[in-house]
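Worked problem 6 (solution included).
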Amino acid sequence: MDLHEDEAAMIIWVGDRNLGSLVSEDEALISVLDHGFTVADGVFETMKVIDGSAFALTRHLRRLTASARAMGLADPDLDVIRGAVGEVLFANRPLLGGPGRLRITYTGGVAPLGSDRGAAVPTLVVALSPQTPWPETTTLVTVPWTRNENSAVAAIKTTSYADNVVALMRAHEQGASEAIFANTRGELCEGTGTNVFAIIGGQVLTPPLSSGCLAGVTRDLILEWFDVTEQVLDPSVLQGADEVFISSSTRDVHPVVRVDDRVWAAAGPVSTRMRQQFAIRAAAEIDP
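Solution. The predicted structure is:
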């Protein structure tokens, strides 16, 4: 096994819908003709790993199946995936040394060089990497590009992330950690990998799924665990809100202290309390 000079290589599960094996990340290969590579024909899930276990795995697998169906891919074999996840977590436990990020990628498999999908069995990859903890607060910028709530892949977690790459690059250029999109109707939508929430007069608001935003797993848990209202929002709400926070599977509840030129002196009391309570509930049940 070829190891990096300064650290051991992580172990990755590589195969297809039916069968795969563990290999070093240096030896983890898929075909250059895989439709996930050539035209981003695939779906994926990312989740945090705490103490060697993946958080909310069942919810993520449920969404992976829904995304695959929406893309016209064969249903993933969840038993195979659970087995692969277990193997990856066990194999990497000595190497992880702290929080991790687990990613399940499921693509159309080897196909012609074009949009037509081939008849190959879908490709499946389960990978793990260390996760640097996020700071207690974060910063946002709004970007001029829009989410298309009428797209054929709206709200599906596809591997087509070019929009997000460009928007996140803009955010980093402006000293922020996340970029926020409106949709084509001019409504507040989501971030590149997060859902967004505004707190006004103690009321927690978030865009509805009709905005085109992803049904985030952490978003769903927040809606179940706290008093939150789904409401069509104008992007200007981020400038006038008492507090703003974002959520994702690796960030949990993440209070915001800057949106564009709007700056808060510190995280607000409501988002801080929700962050603490979310952490307590998540720690009590690994697969809520």
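Discussion: Residues 78-96 form the longest helix (19 residues).
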